[in-house]
Every structure is written in structure tokens, then in C-alpha cells.
Amino acid sequence: MSVDDKNKATTITMLMESEGAEKFDAIKSADAGSAEKSTATGSTGTARKKVNILSRLIEKNMLVPGSALGPDFQDDYRRIKRPLLANACGKNRSMVNRGNLILVTSSIPGEGKTYTSVNLALSIAQEKDITVLLVDCDVAKQGVSRKLGIEKASGLVDVLENDDLDLGDVMLQTDIPNLRLVSAGKHNAYFTELLASQRMASLVDEIVTRYGDRVIIFDGPPLLPTPETQVLAGLVGQVVFVIEAGKTPQSLVEDALEMIPEDQATGLVMNKYEGLSGRGGYYYGYYGPDDDNKS
Length: 295
What we know:
With 295 residues, this protein is of the alpha/beta class. The chain is built from ten helices and eleven strands.
């Protein structure tokens, strides 16, 4: 599949992952441990929890100091995040409505969507003046929540069900500087309807105004098996679409991309891509819905 540079200020980049296992100097973080209360409070006056996730991230070999990932892996995500940040809070901010709201999705399960969401959030959190909020919107799988050990915490569904709660009441501080989390919350069979509700629209408006200085990453379900993500795609300014190279049929990818609104800045991340060197890595570029030269 070819990609079209939808935003002319953004270029397509081929990314390769290093074979080495060097550790990189990155974000400064507190020691991992058990969850503890912080002094910050939400709108209801409830003390906001702090969760220590660094040890879990190291164990799962994510983009934090102490993992076995080499510096080239960090550079991969630097290249992925640069156009997203340009649209969110940089030179292209005026061109992308709600550019600081980023949805990460895929066409089908198992393409590395959640892994990409977490590492992208960790990479952006390394920026000196940007705070990242990672929201688990995959209520069925709760990939982010389970990966980070916050699946039992109140989260997005609880806020959508309860008018007395806002996002600040369920937001979790972490021992990763500049990173905040919101879990998926409890399971709800009518999550699609909750996402399509006026309550969700109001919540997104609140996020844009109240957290305008933050980048918010929504880890959504895959597009084809569930209807929720199509609703989410209409609420954000940017979409990161993850594809596992050599796995997903092109027809499924194209069907899924057709479900994303045409005015979205949609970036493609091709996971486990092998370039000329044969090393696994990432391809990142912008998808153009009017591109007639797909291959």
C-alpha cells in the first residue's frame, strides 16, 4: 500500500530497529513500588492515586530506562512522534483541529496496537514541556490497563456513566514523569452507545479546554471487529493506524481505513517491517484517502 502525504509539512520516514540491546539514557523516574496516594485531588475532592509502573514496563521491555531496547528503538519512536507533535502543539497546530487528541487503532486484533500506544506515550513523555495522558478505550480487552496493572481502577466507563465524576477524578499519576493514565473502567455492554452519547462529546470538549497543554492518546479497539472505534475516530484530531507487516491482508486494511473520517490526519505505523537490512522496525507515513495508486 502506498501512502500519501496528507499534511504537506510532514514527510514519510522509513524506520529500522536496532539489533543491539543497549540501554538508553531517557526520562528520569522514581523507584518502582506499590501504589500510593498523592496529594492531588479531582473535582470531587477525592485524593488522586499514584501508581508505580516502571518495574512493569522494564519487565515487559517497554521504552523506559532499564529495558533491553537499544537506542535505535528510541529513535524509531522519536521519528513517529515528531509529526504527531507538530500537529498537536507545533507548527501545524492551526491546521489540525483537536490535534492533541490522538487515537491509536488497527484493523484487526494482534497487530501491536497497545504496544504502540504505550511506547508512543512513553516517548512523548520524554519531552521537556509536554504532559501525556494515556486513556484505555478498549473496554473489552483492556490491553493498556492490564499491561500497566490498573485494570481494577475506576476509569472512562465510570465517568461516562456518572455525571458526578470527571476525568480528573479517575486520572492516575505515575512514577514516569509527565505521564498520566486513565483505565478503561468496568465492562459495559453498551460502550458504543456511551461513546456516541452527549456525555462523551462533552467530556472530549472538556479535555480539549481543560487539558489543552497535554497530548491525549486514546488506545482504541481495532476498527473492523467493533463499532466503538469509528465513533472515537470522529472525536479526535489524529489517528495512528497500526499494521503488522506480512500479516494483515491489504483488503482488510483498506476497509478499516475507509471507516476513518477523510479530514483526519491519519498516520500509518507498519509494525515488524523488514527493510533492506532485514532488521525489524517501523514504517511511518500519512495515509491519503484520495490516493488512487495503492499497491
